[in-house]
Amino acid sequence: MRFPLGIRGLIGAVVSLLLFVSFATQAQTAFSTQTQTPGPLLRDLTLRIDTASYALSRNTIAVQGEPNLYFYYQKEDETAELQIYPTVFRANAPLRLIRSADFQLVDSVTAVNNSYYRAKIRFKELTAARFLRLSFVQVGDTAGRGLQTQSVNLLPVTRTTVELRVNDPELYIGEEKVFELRSNNPINVRTSPEWTRGQDIDYRVTQEKGLLRLHVLPNSLGSRVLTARVQTERPFLTDNNRRLSNSLPPLRQEFTVKASRLRFLNVDKKEVTIDDISRRRGAEIILDNGRSFELRRTYRIEDQEEPGGTLIAELFTRSYLTNDRVLCWVRVYNTHRLTDSYLYIKENDQAKYITNFTVAPKTAINAVSVRHRGGDWVSNTGVSPGETVDVRLEGESLGRARFHFEDVQVVPSDSSTRTDVAVVYRIQVPVTIDKRRITIYNNGQPTGQSLAVREFQRPHPLDFINVTFGESPRPVTRLNGPVLYNRTISDVVFSFNTAGIDSDKQLYGKQYLIFDIRTQNAKGELIEMRTVDNVVVCPDESSVRAAFYQDKLCQVGNISLNNLLSSRKTYSLDDWSTIIITVRHNQAQYQEPGFTQKLELVLQRRVKFDIDISFPGGLLTKYRDESSFTSFGGISLASLAQFSFYHPTKINKLRPYKIGAGFVALNAFNLSENSDVRRDLGIVILGSVYPTRADAKLTFPLYLGGGYLMNKRAPFFLFGPGIGIRL
Known about the structure:
By secondary structure, the chain is mainly beta. It is built from 2 helices and 53 strands.
């Protein structure tokens, strides 16, 4: 059937369009198949602590836009059971939990009923832990699925309560009072050395020896309500587990604030530093107007109301201010603390007013000491990358200072203390720190004290040293006891696996080694002795500290024993010679005991060839044509080339038998022509049994063998004892 030209063109266009759409659909399907990304590794994760259970599918909360599996804890080292439900259970590709410093794997990951996995972990210092997560990995399988990983962020939360009990609700203006706070988890309560400002009753929260204390300082008379807002280190959940909060319910307590006998004058500064400037020129303060103050006049400030008190400071009034206050200079001469007593402003030894402020010496660090984990306090301020240490600062007026360590994280710890004469910090040195010194700052200013960053220098087990003496390289730690080698040793070569020294979790640093080399002959006599004491092996570039290990002394290449020996090389040593090499750490470079490994190579031989001369006597001989042995003969002379055989598992120990061939002069010492015993010369093959005494020159073997007599021209057999002489 034929169509008009226009219709045929339309049909062709429709067919082309359908083919294009089909091709595009197939291409899109193929592209989406190629670019399809695998789904999540885990379908769900359940964490059980005691009787409580927390699931990733229902117990999550967003923190900075990322979901976190939250769980409540009561102890710092809680033990938890994990139930891991993968999206697709693959028996041929087991799931693994990546280890972390924040927890310890108690029970390994185990498959249960081919449907989920179970494991048990024990957390470490949950309150101080930051960025806690569980990371899982599953290797690829034969179905073409590649390596899959997934991390689950964990958010430990805890219920913290703080309670204030006051037996005496009376306060006095300018007098600091301290109350104890009771808490079920005091380590989780955030403390601060700074006072609040501008309230009727100022306060601050401190912690000392595990006890929480609330310091209060009233500023206004009458009945006043203290509202203390306490913060926690670890958050807790509010609004039906929908919101995180670090703010505990406010502590409210009503106090009755009374005036002292003298009018109390408030000072704008609660602390004045005593130094040369404040002693000579004075520090500027603003004081309440005492009504009876005279401008341009100096008043004494003493620590007691009666005359004759210690002069703490001198007060010089300069001018009145519009808010009924006075601008003054105060020159301080002695130290004073708020808790010591009130300060009395006197005129002509007569107390006029009462005030209180702290006069403290300038913050100064006199000594810095460091305590490494498991050690004692030492004055050596060297710390290593990745190390967590306690740092103690000793000096004056340290309690009010705000110290921080350059590029170092301060870790909260219950062992931290803070007093005027000593403060203790626990710091964690980053493993990637790129400074040689960590400067200690106070309020952003250098204190002149610092910590020296030194690379880890700890002895590593000697399994990173490999030795080759004719076979494939083997770690020296696997060669314990004498090694019997039955071939020629062309050389003994030591190589170093520099990638096996440092790891992500353990840093050891440079390894300083000493090689003691001794060669001796089969009798134990010394042939040569060498000591190489300047071998420095540095971790390779896989170490995070590789850039700081660069040193011209670092060993490059292998160590050849033949390059060190001068008199006899390894390939020219005699049978049963011994090469003794002791590898040990240079103890002068370390503060802890190093490792030692002894390698003993023995040049073993299986057969020994030697010439023996012996004197068989009383031999019984039997000739081919005779039916019995002859009578005992005289003394004969035998010269034999013999093969001796060594014990395969003992050093230079011969077996008690030999096999040889040679000549026997029968009855060689029978000089009588009339005797029935005739002399003859025979070619023989003899087996002999010898005593196994070492290095015996005179022996008494037994002979058994046969041969051919030259004179009689007949074969014969012989048996009997003899006397052997070894040359």
